Amino acid sequence: SRMGFPKALLTYNNALLYQYQAEKLNKICHTVYLSHNSSNFILEGSPFQVIEDQYGQHGPVSGILSSLEFLKQPIFIIPTDTPSLSIEVIKTLLEKRVREQICTVFYNEKSLFYEPLIGIWELAAIPVLKENILHQNYSLQKILRENNIKHIPLTDDYQFTNVNSIEDFKMCIRDSRQTE
Predict the structure, then answer these.
(1) How far apart are CA 95 and CA 12, in angstroms?
(2) 148 or 123: whose pLDDT is higher?
(3) Which of 19, 30, 84, 152 suits a disulfide with 15, CB 3.0-4.6 Å?
(4) Does the pLDDT value for residue 163 go beyond 90?
């Protein structure tokens, strides 16, 4: 809503932002899906199946739970709006995955916040997420803190920067050109 239109449809490095991010996951995953909170979300010609949130529009917690239930297997998630995220970060998550927890995510020791939208979510998260939605707790930060999640220390927080405005997006494009 801050952009005024879906961020997924921004053009970044000659691709739509959702396609650019999906290509990163295609390098390590057999199948890539898109999670969205609206059945009106249609991407013409997209090869990706959209998983619609089944728990209302309560933010990422709804999308994660809906995806876990739909796929009936652990999920690896990255947000559309973090184009600076590298494939190395994605591989780090795979290497450090803790299957005995509800998820494996990074933690920013500067801000003291988890990065729950870049992670691997296990099937064990389903009852935890359902319970929290039932009690109207939609905060992934609170859920992760309450479940004492072992996390991976974040070393380069720039890669986790969200594009939330046109100005953010322009800066991201400038930065990507400088690192080429």
Answers:
(1) 28
(2) 123
(3) 19
(4) no
State the SS3 of 116-149.
EEEEEECCCHHHHHHHHHHCCCCCHHHHHHHCCC
Q: Which amino acid is at 95?
A: E
Query: Where does residue 93 rank: exposed (0-12), middle (13-18), buried (19+ CB within 10 A)?
Result: buried
- Contact present, 93 and 120 (Cβ < 8 Å): yes
Which residue's structure tokens are 């690192």?
179
d(CA 146, CA 50): 30
Residue in 80, 68, 94 with CA at minimum distance from that of residue 18: 80
Rounded Cα gap, residues 62 and 91, in angstroms: 25
The three-state secondary structure class of 34 is strand
Which residue bears the tokens 């070393």?
155
Among 23-27, 36-40, 122-126, top mean pLDDT goes to 122-126
Please state which of the ranges 10-19, 41-50, 54-63 shows the lowest mean pLDDT.
41-50
